[in-house]
Write a structure and sequence with these properties.
Layout: E1 3-7, H1 22-28, E2 34-38, H2 48-59, E3 65-68, H3 75-81, E4 85-87, H4 92-101, H5 105-113, E5 118-121, H6 123-126, E6 155-157, H7 174-181, E7 189-191, E8 197-201, E9 204-208, E10 213-216, E11 223-225
Parallel strand pairs: 1-5, 2-3, 2-4, 4-5, 6-7
Antiparallel strand pairs: 1-8, 7-10, 8-9, 10-11
């Protein structure tokens, strides 16, 4: 019954905010004229109002109005009553901390499971997995738990970057970091490159977009998944 898009990013190089996703978003939110926007991740420390205005401008192209969750007196009721939900990117730990403080983890899980269409980008996608330990963000706040929504059965690493063979950087690659994660955890991790997303329709789950994704599983070599791969097999 789920209808969900978890995208690596809100903006790909050379296009506007959410522009590359407009067609799938039209399908995701078909027949819906207003959605609730969760602005808690606050990229760059932007205000909730300013962030909501960015989302509203993008969705106006689909003739969908946007209301920020911070404007509701009762956020839990707002999530239960929302016809559609979008959680934007930014700092994953700030986002998760605010979800816990506002007692929104279980309400979000429940409405997504019951079919409320959900869009996440970057941090808003990170929280779709069982936890947020594979985010690229700095832990600038300390949420009560790293556990998140668990509406996807694997962890995500949005903005996944391949090693640059010409780079002189001697630090860890993204792949190294994810392999470190698997020394302590057994759940699979999907590295989503920019412009790719996970699409869930009922029990069907697929990789969408023009690029491959990199799948990491504990004790196995990483593999490349082609666009439109069936992710329900993970």
């Amino acid at each position: 019954m789920k209808k969900l898009i978890a995208a690596s990013t809100s903006t790909v190089h050379g296009s506007g905010y959410l522009e590359y996703l407009l067609k799938p978003l039209g399908n995701l939110f078909e027949g819906i004229d207003q959605i609730v926007f969760v602005p808690y991740a606050r990229p760059g420390g932007i205000s909730h109002d300013a962030y909501t205005a960015i989302a509203a401008k993008a969705f106006s192209k689909l003739e969908i109005t946007v209301k920020g969750l911070h404007l509701f007196e009762n956020p839990v009721a707002a999530i239960h009553e929302a016809r559609g939900i979008f959680t934007g990117g930014g700092n994953t730990f700030v986002l998760l901390d605010q979800l816990y403080k506002n007692q929104l983890i279980e309400p979000l899980k429940n409405v997504i499971a019951n079919g409320t269409p959900y869009l996440g980008t970057s941090a808003g996608s990170n929280i779709c997995g069982p936890g947020v330990c594979t985010t690229n963000d700095m832990p600038i706040v300390y949420p009560p738990s790293f556990d998140s929504l668990g509406v996807l059965p694997f962890y995500l690493n949005p903005h996944y970057l391949d090693p640059d063979p010409g780079s002189t950087h001697m630090g860890e690659t993204r792949e190294t970091r994810i392999n470190e994660f698997h020394t302590q955890n057994s759940v699979a991790v999907l590295g989503l490159r920019e412009g790719s997303w996970v699409e869930v329709q009922d029990e069907q789950m697929h990789l969408r977009g023009p690029l491959k994704a990199r799948l990491f599983q504990a004790g196995q070599d990483a593999i490349e998944l082609k666009p439109d791969s069936d992710l329900s097999l993970i």
